UniProtKB/TrEMBL annotation, chain A:
It comes from Oncorhynchus tshawytscha (Chinook salmon). It comes from the Eukaryota. Residues 43-438 form the FAD-dependent oxidoreductase 2 FAD-binding domain. This is Succinate dehydrogenase [ubiquinone] flavoprotein subunit, mitochondrial. The active site is at R320 (proton acceptor). Its main location: mitochondrion. GO terms for biological process: mitochondrial electron transport, succinate to ubiquinone; tricarboxylic acid cycle. Keywords: Electron transport, FAD, Flavoprotein, Membrane, Mitochondrion, Mitochondrion inner membrane, Oxidoreductase, Transit peptide, Transport, Tricarboxylic acid cycle. PROSITE patterns: FRD_SDH_FAD_BINDING (PS00504). Flavoprotein (FP) subunit of succinate dehydrogenase (SDH) that is involved in complex II of the mitochondrial electron transport chain and is responsible for transferring electrons from succinate to ubiquinone (coenzyme Q). It is an enzyme of class 1 (oxidoreductase).
UniProtKB/TrEMBL annotation, chain B:
One of its GO terms (biological process) is mitochondrial respiratory chain complex II assembly. It comes from the Eukaryota. Transmembrane segments: none annotated. Signal peptide: none annotated. This is Succinate dehydrogenase assembly factor 2, mitochondrial. It is found in: Mitochondrion matrix. Belongs to the SDHAF2 family. Keywords: Chaperone, Mitochondrion. Its main location: mitochondrion. GO terms for cellular component: mitochondrial matrix. Interacts with SDHA within the SDH catalytic dimer. Plays an essential role in the assembly of succinate dehydrogenase (SDH), an enzyme complex (also referred to as respiratory complex II) that is a component of both the tricarboxylic acid (TCA) cycle and the mitochondrial electron transport chain, and which couples the oxidation of succinate to fumarate with the reduction of ubiquinone (coenzyme Q) to ubiquinol. Required for flavinylation (covalent attachment of FAD) of the flavoprotein subunit SDHA of the SDH catalytic dimer.
Length: 645, 229
């Protein structure tokens, strides 16, 4: 059954967009401007096959929904595989534990920007989620008595911060991420989940404010596929690649955030970007904190151990954000190392080579492979490196994507869900605790599946879709494929990355941020002048990287503009010119007699940003933080306080 | 100790549990996996034990009393299972130091949750294969592999002949854990026989970075642009 649409002359190249039935999809790799489209119908479509996407796909398939999972990477190659930490859950295997203490730690860690209902949901569900994973076959590391082994991790305490270090992190040796992916992927196949691997999702199919599916490019043969569904789940991960130096793989390009932005919906809290103090300069590969634990020291261009000045007691082992800030200050004051004086050195050659080999086995290899440095003779160049994005697509605690108006408050976008790093539930608020991310993936992946199972039944009839839905996405694809301007993809990308790195890094000031916003705007405009070189349609990496660049740009402009507007320091967003948190009450002083500031006058609120894709102009709105937990009697909400450890 | 084995299931992909009800808050599970890949269910230890079919492949036995220590159980099980039944699975024990304090990794999920086997793609021209392998070299699970494999692809992919392309295809697409490829390339772990060969040697040599060049990032794609050369 095929219908052809008259040629659309959106550009000077006559674009022909025709829709076929399900079985015709072969396209030759010629200079064809024909884009045959294949339509699919599913009960649910999940975009992204990392930890969150796989958990959602598995949950949906298990509940009987005909589910498709559209992913640009093979599932076990998603960025989740890089996770070597673990999953936090208050199982109480190492000492007595209570999920309410985990709740407190997470709320405090988020610097009171996290939504407490979502945090309540996540920490309460954590033990069930871990036990469920165990049931699915995930081989957690065990103690001598066979219970799941739990270890300590930063920011986790007992008894609401008063009982010392908690041991809550469950892991599978050092391959928790891989094990999670392997387990979930394997199990989901038994329930007949349909995987569309190496399909690049281009855009959401929105009609009347409702999400009706996704349109994607099949890399293998260049065909276009429309996945029609009543329920779309976005689990596309973060966008570390907007920065010059990040620990993320080259696949972290914020595709989901961009799809949502192009659909006219807001993204939340994008200015909150977490930095890890020691990533290899340039490459960005993580150098573990364990190096400094074993005696490694940070030095500047004068050979000075500068951490002694910034943290006289803890020195190089001060908390991550203190170390990141110190390194940045040294570089800005002209004591950076290297020809461009733009990084610091991590010195290990004063340690005995034997110790390096046994206690830090991977470091010597990584330093040699990525920095060409022999750690027994020279120091490693390091820089604070982007590590995680707390912000993303705003959702409620059930995983449904929301928009917000002052009059009506939060409103659900029908048919659209999000989970994982791509979403902002918001459980991490202004700062994420270690080992909470993998937990976030499984709990909210599961939540999306449960919510969909609650509101829909498998096999429901789909509402009609406009015959030419998704046409603009294909027109954009075609335009990029034949783009012949003056600036190459890689040039524009590096301009964006350097602007973000120089203007929206660890330490931010109004003047530098404003310059950054203007520069970023200029870089955004150069997208119109882009030049690609690969004109094919089959396995066109150049085209995919250019699409990813478009997506990254949308994330970058929102991040830097949101950061420029937020005039306070909270969590990972640290402003030199506004060093304190600005809440509705001054929590450093006694509360009696203080007057509550209205929401326009304080900063304990979520940022909602939208972009006009044609001009790159960013519009910002704000939304209040949810301060009540799901059940006040079961778990009291934590009122804000000054955050100190 | 009562009679140990009541049932042996010979399905390869199967997990067995012994659920204890010692903890009130959450059930704690113990695995009892025989190294041979067959399952043994320690059953009927005590008076009231029920068997429940929870998954299509496994059975849960409820115990009302104390837990059996896993070490004792392991000893019993390996005593029962003849070594000849152990499958020839690639090296399970990691020699790499762990970044933390958790005990050893049983690699259970890899044995019991087999993923569909990787198969070579048919009917692909060499040119298309190279384009596919380029994409698959540049888009990996973690940064280290992204940089390493895209630099390797820049250097070698366009000059590989057909058997070499097929070796490379298998190397980067079959292993389930991307870290494994990194450990083999950096010689932190021994390479399994199926992946050893010309391409693996080339990768190991390349990784050593004997010229000590600074590998700041994955290369931009424009080296492929014939028009600009």
């Amino acid at each position: 059954m095929s219908q052809s649409i008259p040629a659309v002359s959106q550009s000077s190249r006559k674009l022909h967009f025709s829709v076929y039935g399900k079985n015709n999809s072969k396209v030759s790799d010629g200079m064809s401007t024909q884009y045959p489209v294949v339509d699919h119908e599913f009960d649910a479509v999940v975009v992204g096959a990392g930890g969150a996407g796989l958990r959602a796909a598995f949950g949906l398939s298990e509940a009987g929904f005909n589910t498709a999972c559209v992913t640009k990477l093979f599932p076990t190659r998603s960025h989740t595989v890089a996770a070597q930490g673990g999953i936090n859950a208050a199982l109480g295997n190492m000492e007595g534990d209570d999920w309410r203490w985990h709740f407190y730690d997470t709320v405090k860690g988020s610097d009171w920007l996290g939504d407490q209902d979502a945090i309540h949901y996540m920490t309460e569900q954590a033990p069930h989620a871990v036990v469920e994973l165990e049931n699915f076959g995930m081989p957690f590391s065990r103690t001598e008595d066979g219970k799941i082994y739990q270890r300590a991790f930063g920011g986790q305490s007992l008894k609401f911060g008063k009982g010392g270090q908690a041991h809550r992190c469950c892991c599978v040796a050092d391959r928790t991420g891989h094990s999670l992916l392997h387990t979930l992927y394997g199990r989901s196949l038994r329930y007949d989940t349909s995987y569309f691997v190496e399909y690049f999702a281009l855009d959401l199919l929105m009609e009347d404010g409702e999400c009706k599916g996704v349109i994607a490019l099949c890399m293998e043969d260049g065909s276009i596929h429309r996945f029609r569904s009543k329920n779309t789940v976005i689990a596309t991960g973060g966008y570390g690649r907007t920065y010059f130096s990040c620990t993320s793989a080259h696949t972290s390009t914020g595709d989901g955030n961009a799809m949502v932005t192009r659909a006219g919906l807001p993204c939340q809290d994008l200015e909150f970007v977490q930095f890890h103090p020691t990533g290899i300069y340039g490459a960005g590969c993580l150098i573990t904190e364990g190096c400094r634990g074993e005696g490694g020291i940070l030095i500047n261009s004068e050979g000075e151990r500068f951490m002694e000045r910034y943290a006289p007691n803890a020195k190089d082992l001060a908390s991550r954000d203190v170390v990141s800030r110190s390194i940045t200050i040294e570089i800005r004051e002209g004591r950076g190392c290297g020809p461009e004086k733009d990084h610091a050195y991590l010195q290990l050659h004063h340690l005995p080579p034997q110790q390096l080999a046994t206690r830090l086995p991977g470091i010597s290899e990584t330093a040699m492979i990525f920095a060409g440095v022999d750690v027994t003779k020279e120091p490693i160049p390091v820089l604070p490196t982007v590590h995680y994005n707390m912000g993303g697509i705003p959702t409620n605690y059930r995983g449904q994507v929301i928009t917000h108006t002052t009059e009506e408050g939060d409103k659900v976008v029908p048919g659209l869900f999000a989970c994982g790093e791509a979403a902002c539930a918001s459980v991490h608020g202004a700062n994420r605790l270690g080992a909470n991310s993998l937990l976030d993936l499984v709990v909210f992946g599961r939540a999306c599946a449960h919510t969909i199972a609650d509101i829909c039944t498998p096999g429901e009839k789909l509402s009609p879709l406009k015959p030419n839905a998704g046409e603009e996405s294909v027109a954009n694809l075609d335009k990029l494929r034949f783009a012949d301007g003056n600036m190459r993809t890689s040039e524009i990308r590096v301009n964006m990355q350097k602007t973000m790195q120089n203007h929206a890094a660890v330490f931010r000031t109004g003047k530098v941020l404003k310059e950054g916003c203007d520069k970023m705007d200029a870089v955004y405009q150069t997208l119109d002048d882009i030049k690609t070189f690969d004109r094919g349609i089959v396995w066109n990496t150049d085209l995919v990287e250019t699409l990813e660049l478009q997506n990254l740009m949308l994330n970058a402009v929102q991040t830097i503009n949101s950061a420029e507007q937020r005039q306070e320091s909270r969590g990972a967003h640290s402003r030199e010119d506004f060093k304190d948190r600005m809440d509705e009450l001054d929590y450093a002083k006694p509360l009696a007699g203080q007057v509550r500031k209205p929401i326009e006058e304080h900063w304990r609120k979520h940022t909602l940003s939208t972009v006009d894709p044609k001009t790159g102009k960013v519009t910002l709105k704000y939304r209040p933080v949810i301060d009540n937990s799901l059940d006040a009697e079961d778990c009291a909400a934590i009122p804000p306080a000054i955050r100190s450890y | 100790m009562q009679k140990l084995i009541t049932q042996v299931s010979t399905q390869l992909a199967c997990c067995c549990y012994i659920r204890t009800e010692a903890e009130s808050r959450s059930a704690s599970f113990k695995y009892l996996r025989c190294e041979s890949g067959t399952c043994i269910i320690l059953g009927h230890w005590l008076l009231s034990s029920q068997q429940e079919q929870s998954h299509q492949d496994s059975a849960v036995t409820r115990k009302k009393d104390t837990m059996l220590s896993v070490l004792v159980a392991k000893r019993l099980v390996s005593g029962v299972c003849p070594k000849s039944l152990r499958p020839a699975v690639a090296e399970l024990v990691t020699t790499r130091g762990y970044k933390g304090e958790a005990p050893d990794d049983s690699r259970g999920d890899i044995i019991e949750i087999p993923l569909p086997p990787w198969t070579e793609k048919d009917g692909e021209t060499m040119d298309i294969k190279r384009r596919r392998l380029l994409f698959q070299s540049r888009k990996r699970g973690m940064l280290e592999n992204c940089i390493l494999l895209s630099l390797f692809a820049k250097q070698y992919l366009n000059t590989m002949n057909e058997p070499q392309l097929r070796q490379y295809d298998r190397l980067i697409n079959e292993p389930s854990n991307d870290w494994d490829i990194y450990y083999w390339a950096t010689e932190a772990q021994p390479v399994p026989d199926v992946y050893a060969g010309e391409i693996m040697d080339l990768l190991k040599e390349f990784t050593k970075n004997k010229d000590q060049e600074q590998r700041l990032d994955a290369p931009n794609l424009e080296y492929l642009d014939k028009g600009s050369q």
